[in-house]
């Protein structure tokens, strides 16, 4: 009997049409839990570093997390993993919604695609019945409409469908995979899916997931329920509204965007719009949002409502959440929020990442204004800001004209265009577009998160540490008073001592040693979330979340029957994290790649930054190049990884 996990992978060879249901080794859960953890192991074992994104050998893996399908609240993430066409590293965008639970109920922990299909297909999984079906009639259809068309065609209104739109079909490097209210967005999963000619994956499952010790499990869950209620009734004081509660950023609920609009240098521009948020804008944006949002919606088994059903004018209905509402309007320098709802609808149907794509469009406009792209490149493009963005989006999604070059993302497009275009590529990390945050003084914690994390996005790292020091001692005391989530009591003192200005302020405080401890803790919690399939919006992405290092071991133990304590859980998280690092090292990532965009902060501290990296690497058990040492790998039962890295010359002198 397997508990929590299904115990089977579904292996699909798209070249031969062979489908296999393969029982997994129970040891895998003990070593890596599930989700991202076991997926990293799978890629390490099967995909050698020479493999590129569009090689047939690149695996595309849809994975549930260890706790998906159990009653654990908000465990609803599907992790999609593959080698990214942008970064050439192991990418793992995620989606919530309802897909993961359905897959578990169908009896599979992972669906693994290898090779390429000669013709357009979609996969249909209905419990034990699995078919590769013709999708030629769906080619060119939107990522949202495809989901509905497939449900109708199958006569399965309850099937969950993850689909790509035209952007994925055309291998646009920022193509996403869309599913109900959710999206696996970043790093080009849609492009890899399109390259394999998979239009969609439809899943229906009606089986059970078993719990090892149900009574103990429900008792732990009761504690979580009580805490969620408590947190709702006691919002955290003196922090931004979106950080005061739990749930992924409540952008669909709140309308006050003063902080984001004025502090981010939106578009590809280097300047902030400091006085953007006027009373007029406040009124017009609130009105626009209240008119567009029909209702707030949640993912599978989640008590919060972070997404929204959007119906705007005569555009078809779709679902959105978080920063989507801001990224296009701000990138286009359009002050009317209505524009966002319209273009976001089209972008969702095309299936593109709403962080990277608007920046590619803004980059094109910047190049045009600088005379690097010309009227010839923009032939037929409307002159107004809104029309221009729609036009550019259409070109990118279909890889038409200049859109074909832009579709590779800012980094590659800049190099192809040349003629000074490289200077406009100033917001990528490891060849991947970031949210265009442009702030004042270097923040040492964010520096480490941006520079070193494998997701290549801070979303996977930040959350549990306050975004800035509290001005008064009373506020600090209030914050640390009730903080059971921390792994060590000393973190409280760090908050108490942390000042807004002076010696004990950023960039020198928290010190590099403290920063290492804090970042490592936050990252570890994200890794656990990604392995169990938890939405980090209910966990490591928030201040004082319901799930933490003290209750997770008990919940996981009761669900799976493993006897895990805190040390055991940390060991597993560190094992998977180091394996992921080693995988990317094997792909060529080293210290030289680990830097945030040059103008992310105005005031930089090169010496301190080097010291931060070195201190953090040492803390992690990595060498000066950012590669795990043999000693570290052996402590984590990863001796075979050290052997491989040495054989390849990636790891030198232990
Ligand atoms: N792109 C699309 N198409 N749809 C979205 O909802 N969400 C954005 C971004 N890109 C989003 C999107 C937000 S708010 C986040 S945090 C990241 O995707 C999440 O990245 P992931 O899906 O790759 O994990
Ligand atoms: N949960 C996990 N485990 N990992 C993540 O990166 N991103 C969060 C949230 N939950 C995230 C996550 C953020 S910032 C957003 S906006 C939403 O997921 C994105 O939801 P979606 O991926 O379902 O579209
Ligand atoms: N950072 C600051 N300072 N303030 C924020 O509101 N939002 C987060 C995060 N970082 C946020 C922030 C959210 S919801 C997302 S989705 C990520 O920024 C996206 O960052 P990325 O491009 O690095 O993934
Ligand atoms: Mg996502
Ligand atoms: W987000």
UniProtKB/TrEMBL annotation:
Keywords (A to Z) from UniProt: 4Fe-4S, Iron, Iron-sulfur, Metal-binding, Oxidoreductase
Record-level Gene Ontology MF annotations: 4 iron, 4 sulfur cluster binding; electron transfer activity; metal ion binding; oxidoreductase activity, acting on the aldehyde or oxo group of donors, iron-sulfur protein as acceptor
Transferase among keywords: no
Domain of life: Bacteria
Pfam (any one): AFOR_C
Cofactor(s) this protein cannot do without: [4Fe-4S] cluster; tungstopterin
Residue ranges occupied by any Aldehyde ferredoxin oxidoreductase N-terminal domain in the UniProt entry: 6-207
SMART domains tied to this protein: AFOR_N (SM00790)
UniProt xrefs under InterPro entries: Ald_Fedxn_OxRdtase_dom2 (IPR013984), Ald_Fedxn_OxRdtase_dom3 (IPR013985), Ald_Fedxn_OxRdtase_N (IPR013983), Ald_Fedxn_OxRdtase_N_sf (IPR036503), OxRdtase_Ald_Fedxn_C (IPR001203), Tungsten_al_ferr_oxy-like_C (IPR036021), W-dependent_AOR (IPR051919)
Family as reported in the entry's similarity comment: Belongs to the AOR/FOR family.
Name this protein carries in UniProt: Aldehyde ferredoxin oxidoreductase
